[in-house]
Every structure is written in C-alpha cells, then in structure tokens.
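Q: I'm writing up a methods section and want to include an example of the input and output format. Could you take the sequence below and give the corresponding predicted structure tokens, formatted cleanly so I can copy it straight into the document?
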Amino acid sequence: MNDNKTNEVIEVLNKIMEYELSGVVRYTHYALMITGRDRLSLAQFFKDQATESLLHAQEAGEIVTGLGGHPSLKIQIIEESNKHSTVDLLNESSTHEGDAVALYKVLLDIVKDESIYIEEYARGMIKAEEMHAIEVKKMLKDFAEG
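A: Here is the clean output for your methods example:
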C-alpha cells in the first residue's frame, strides 16, 4: 500500500477503535440497566458484548500500530436515550451493530486488492457484527409477538 492509502486505513481503523471502545461503555451500561424476566440472560449477553467490543478495539489498534500509526485515545460520543426497556436496549444494540458493519465495510473497500490480511480482518469483523445483528433480531422477535 502507498503512504496515502496506509494513512487512510489508519484513519478508518482509529474510527473503528473509537466505535468499539464506545461499545464497551454502551454494553456495560446496558448490562447494568436491564430489568425484568430476562435480566440475568440479557445482562450476561451485554457483558459479553462489552468484552467482545474491547477485543475488537484491541485488534484494530494492533493493526494501526503495525502500520506505523498511533492508536486513538478517543471514544465515539454515546447518546443517552434514557430508554432502558429490554426492547429499547436491544434496538439500540441493533443500531450500534449496523453502524459497526458500515465502518468495517468502509475499511474493506479501502483495502480491497491492497492487503489480504486487512481485507480478511475486515471480512471477519463484518461477519461477526452481522451475526450479532441476527442474534439481536431473534431476541427482538419475542417482544414483537408478545
């Protein structure tokens, strides 16, 4: 990759880091706020999502430093909706996952035919985020029927 392309990749990876780190905060908050009959299982689900978001941020940061860049110390701003019903938290989670997919797709477009490693990384992250989105949709289905 040329220097301009590398800088572009680093910029997107830093956005991914910021987004994933905001996911750590978001999902930790959700785990604390969830109530009701499904609290135990959903609290654990959100805790697992927070842990996975941290891992994703770390992976992005490793690539940033591997490319000679400097990992961001920022996180994306998280809007507090003050809506904490199970449906609201799952819908916000679904939106968050969809936005993450979009960021990874931007990365994929930039590195396509430039870096097999980063291309495969982006594809793997898209797959993981899409799988999360499917799981959330399945959870929401229960509430739509109820």
